[in-house]
Amino acid sequence: MKNTIAFIALIIVLMVAAFSCDRDNYLIDGGVASPYLNMTTYEFLASKPVFDTLVLAINKAGLKEILDGEVTFFAPNNFSFERYIRRMTTLGRTVYNDPLYRYHFDSIPTNLLRDSLKMYIFPGKIFRSDLRKEGDIFTNYAGAELKISLEPERMYTTELTTNPSFVWLISKRGVFWDEYDNIPSSVAERDIRQRIQTSGLISTNGVLHVMQNNHDLFFIQF
Fold first, then answer.
1. How far apart are CA 151 and CA 164, in angstroms?
2. What is residue 164's three-state secondary structure?
3. Distance between CA 123 and CA 140 in Å, rounded?
4. Are strands 121-123 and 71-75 parallel, antiparallel or unpaired?
5. Could you state, in order of their start, the residue ranges of all structural domains in the chain?
6. What residue spans of 24-109 are helical by DSSP H?
């Protein structure tokens, strides 16, 4: 009975979070009247319940000082953390042959959390206006190279004079980067492409982009 109640409570929390995502204009890419947040990146994240777990992770990893600098941050939200923890629980139950095994946020080693979150942080301010559809290579605080692009996408059946453009965060898989308009048919050779849910938010110290709700945390492919 307790497990049932806990499960129902979790569903309610996720529904409330989802409603909050839909309600807040900052989660609609290209739909905000003004991109200026009038607060620091960290203060903005701390003010939004959908980033509760991310803020805990930033504090645990000791990355607040970096985020308070002039940086660009691609922020994963609570949904990505929940997916990661759920998948690690499933993996652990298989590895340890224990159906009661549970992976929690506190199970994530601090060093792993610190190094992995640095994948989302880039020195300097990367604005939408700086990006091209072909993409450019940027080095993050983890020392890894990722491609960031701004690509037009046909989403509607009606004829539009201008198609909406989305920011993509791309991790290379294989020897060469994929061309934006020529994605390999083989999944094994295809770069890991993450479309950004909300882009171009400008804080008092940097730029903030928000990852999709279904983003695979730390770019881990289960």
1. 8
2. coil
3. 7
4. antiparallel
5. 2-217
6. 41-47, 52-61, 64-67, 78-95
Determine how many CB atoms are found less than 10 A away from the CB of residue 46.
17
CATH class of 2-217: mainly beta
Q: Which residues contact 186 (CB under 8 A, 6 or more apart)?
A: none
pLDDT tens per residue, the chain (222 residues)? 444 444 334 333 333 344 344 444 344 444 456 899 999 999 999 999 999 999 999 999 999 999 999 999 999 999 999 999 999 999 999 999 999 999 999 999 999 999 999 999 999 999 999 999 999 999 999 999 999 999 987 655 555 556 788 999 999 988 889 988 888 888 888 899 999 999 999 999 999 999 999 999 988 876
Of the candidates 58, 194, 167, the residue with the CA atom closest to the CA atom of residue 121: 58
74: nearest Cα among 221, 209, 214:
209
Q: How far are the Cα atoms of 48, 73, 163 from residue 70, in angstroms, in the given order? A: 21, 10, 31
Distance CA 74, CA 13 (A): 24
Residue 117 CA to its chain's centroid (Å): 10
DSSP helix/strand/coil, 138: strand
With vertex at residue 199, the alpha carbon angle to CA 206 and CA 58, rounded to the nearest 5 degrees, is 55
C-alpha angle 165-169-170 in degrees, rounded to nearest 5: 115
Q: Which residues pair with 9 in a beta bridge?
A: none
Q: Given this model, what pLDDT does residue 204 score?
A: 97
Residue 12: predicted pLDDT: 36
